[in-house]
Amino acid sequence: MKKNPVIEVKNVFKSFKNVQAVNGVDFKIFKGQSVALLGPNGAGKTTLMEMIEGIQKPDKGDILIMGKKWKGNERELHRDIGLSLQETHFIDRLTVFETLKLFAGFYELKRQRVDEIIRIIGLAEKTRSYVVNLSGGQRQRLALGIALLNNPKILLLDEPTTGLDPNARREIWSILMDLKKRSQTSLILTTHYMEEAEQLCERIIIIDNGRILKQGTLEQLLKEDNDDKIIEFALEESNPAIDRISNPSGFQIQWDADRDNGIIVLKQIEKQLPEFLNFLNQNNLRLRHLECRRKTLDDLFTTMTGRRLHE
Question: How many domains does the chain have?
Fold first, then answer.
């Protein structure tokens, strides 16, 4: 039996003045799937998410939620969706409990659901605390709790951990991973954190300049040239312009002046690594650090665009 997608984005375009924010995007998300829109700032992720949320309208193309367009189905679709935007503004002088109770009232939910959400997001000790006194991570957990109040069939999260420290980020991840284990909620999140996409989502859509560059599972994305080895290295010399020195072996060196390190991709490491070391020696360049590893999503993005995710 053929499954129907819970979200279907069909050849969608959106522009603002002279900026083409979304440029012919197509994808489907099915029940229970967790999908990451992975790309750097300015890639078009938020604009695409806002169109899925019904906040923006596409210039061209269609977006179907549970097989329906937003127009004429707003009330029904709002009950099926939980969402958290990049930044949530709360009423500072309400407590955590009062804030959740306020939003629960929109869905005619009882106190039992509010208490359950407080437990899920780990804010039991902050129930009576004013929102203004919460840390950044606690505020994001509260925003996530609001998104989960109505037991949504679809959860939409836009950059849920941007600006948080590593511990606060992992607390959000823990809540979402627990949600995946106990429900069939479909999740779509935007992020520029490679690790976040890997941890939370089984399917990843890489987007840049409003276009989808590649999509699939992590294994599918990294399958091509999976035998390639990444050599990441640093030199004793500062700003050596090593990427402009010709080498007879022909390997490409990507030098990052800001991070003061370089990357090369080797297909035959046993043969090419000695050639690389000989190249350094011939040009009087001394290694300070060298690491060999497999290709990551960040490497894949760099290969496709010539820049890193966090640029």
Answer: 2
